[in-house]
Amino acid sequence: MVELGRTINKQLEAAHLPTKLSIAEAGEIDYLYSNGNKPERGSQIQQFFMPDGANSVLGLSHMSHSVSAHSYFTTAPMIKGMAEREKIRTAINTAKVASGKKDLGYWMSEYCILGDNHGEINGNHRDLGMTSALYLAKVVFMDLCYADASAWHWWLALSAYDYKDGLIYVDKTYSTGKYYESKMLWALGNYSRFIRPGYIRIGTHISNGEPNDSSLLISAFKDQKSQKVVIVAVNNTHTVKKLQLQNRRLILKDKYVTSDRFNLQHFNLASGQEVALQPASVTTLTGILR
């Protein structure tokens, strides 16, 4: 694979094309930082992006510095999923220092709800409701906040199958077919519609939260130029959660809710208002730092 990359890189240089190559797309995230159960495919960060790696591609002008992997089979239990993603972040940060390549980063390149996930949720059979949507939101949260993923890809947009793999479903027929939107479509939109290219993730802390408590998951992002802020809150409980933000510089203006009742429904927020997070919901808050 490395030799193929080097050959293509030469051709791209000769043709003066801006195209970039991505060499590392691991089938599971642990293949990036360890040998896993497939030693011949493992330790990809060390192999490709460390100066002393046997198959280093750091000198190739058309090689993207984005390391990518699929999130399958590593989402449950959540505490294990978070720990595995922290290992990606650590391995990439180590490679950044060793190589001097500050633009090394991580992309989550493919995921749908697959397998039995340690009994948390099964990938078989469609689910148009919030159970799968909340699980999707949890995986996005882990990948963005613990692996520092700067891109996140869902498999797939349109599905005709009886599986938790579609954002929109269609009948598998040539005529008189119908389409069905899922709550996963809207929950993903709570992230993708608002967190735009160039935004950076900023720290959050739940003052009365317990360690490793997944009942309320909060992530926040900021546009450095405009000072716009996006907060995504996932309420995995069956009760309303009240959110009181402590940053007095932050002025929230809008709320977008996905739940059993709403699909990215917009609500205006009054200044200084305590924010109510509906049960089993994904909520996006937008505002600006003064």
UniProtKB/TrEMBL annotation:
Cited Pfam families: Glyco_hydr_30_2
**A Gene Ontology MF term for this entry?**
hydrolase activity, hydrolyzing O-glycosyl compounds
Q: Which residues form the Endo-beta-1,6-galactanase-like domain?
A: 3-169
**Parts forming coiled coils:** none
What superkingdom heads the lineage? Answer: Bacteria
What name does UniProt use for this protein?
Endo-beta-1,6-galactanase-like domain-containing protein
